[in-house]
Amino acid sequence: CIEILKGDQLLIVDAGTGLLTLSPEKIATRKRFDILLTHLHFDHVQGLGFFNPLFNPLCEVHIYGPAGSSGSLQNRLKRYLSPPLFPVHFRDLPCQIHLHEVSHSSFEIGKLRINSNYILHPGPTVGYRISDGNHVLSYFPDHEPVLDRNGWKVGDEWISGMGLARSADLLIHDSQYTSDEYESRVGWGHSSIEVAIKFAIRARVKKLLLFHHDPNHQDTDLEKSFNDHLRDKTYDFQIELAREGMVIDLDGG
Known about the structure:
- This protein has about 250 residues and is of the alpha/beta class.
- The chain has 6 helices and 12 strands.
- The two termini are about 20 Å apart.
- The model has no long low-confidence stretch (mean pLDDT about 95).
């Protein structure tokens, strides 16, 4: 879960447990909330049931996400927001809720232009390109750009997500595995640090934030993998490990 602020506008992207860290002050002073979902795997939606605006009849909540071949966005969200997974039925949420299905889409939310498209990850999954007219943020928390090492030899149009990521000021990208772990997990829908960097190079981004760390990896493991990979290498863009609570100011560099 990340939040994007543009002036007084708030955009929430994915709704995992990080959604609960949104400050009470931001919630108390707003009547409209916009949430972009990349997909409906549990780690990306489990914060929704504990998001207070959903239970406030004065709040308007817009949720954007991909439909699936097995059902609409609404029917798929109902599977989580209903017993036995959650005690309150989706139909009983008192807020004013609006669902928007996205695919290869382009739309505006306030001052932000949003582009979405399907990307490579099990189940219907979209990536997002978010722009305020001056800066571009691309978001791919669960993503495998190619399915084998030879896949990088193809043209950009055959690499998943390339159109959404190209020349982004900030690319937030899946980096769940070490390079060794990835060897036995090709096709699982996630990337290694190496794969994320290769994708960022092809997309010519200005900054890469390595995201969606494996929950079995300790902080020390992540930092070791990161430092080992970058040792004796130079890139013409910035690379950082994502950290909980991190704030990046695109206007401030």
